[in-house]
Design goal:
about 120 residues, rbstp2171, three-stranded antiparallel beta sheet, alpha+beta, 5 helices, 3 strands
């Protein structure tokens, strides 16, 4: 089984910020980190910054950004982040519904609404 591991790395070049960088598939852990990042109480970063943080890499597949870069990434021009995210969404098979769910989570967190505050289905009847 070991020989099967690690064969999912596919790097796709993309031009952003006047340079060629690469976008990689997210690992299972990275995908969960994206979801976890959106659950943080103090949240001042964009969904696109989070996706870029977990997918942008150099030619060898090493990440270009860390969690410490999220605030700065969020301040970058939308069109530059979007170039990377468009490729990342496709490469990681993220559907429009996945992206909308991420954005909805971010909006709820920003407004202070928790999904745990919603009544259970049986409570509404």
């Amino acid at each position: 089984m070991h020989r099967l591991l690690g064969h999912t790395q596919k790097l796709t070049p993309v031009e952003a910020w006047g340079e060629t960088l690469y976008v990689r598939r997210m690992s299972g852990l990275a995908r969960e980190c994206v979801a976890a990042e959106l659950q943080k109480e103090t949240h001042a970063v964009s969904v696109r910054a989070i996706v870029v943080r977990h997918t942008a890499c150099d030619q060898s597949g090493s990440p270009l950004f860390s969690d410490d870069d999220l605030t700065d990434l969020s301040a970058e021009p939308y069109n530059e982040l979007d170039k990377i995210c468009t490729v990342a969404y496709s490469l990681n098979e993220m559907t429009a519904a996945d992206i909308e769910a991420l954005q909805d989570s971010l909006k709820k967190i920003a407004s202070g609404v928790s999904s745990s505050a919603s009544p259970a289905p049986s409570e509404g009847q």
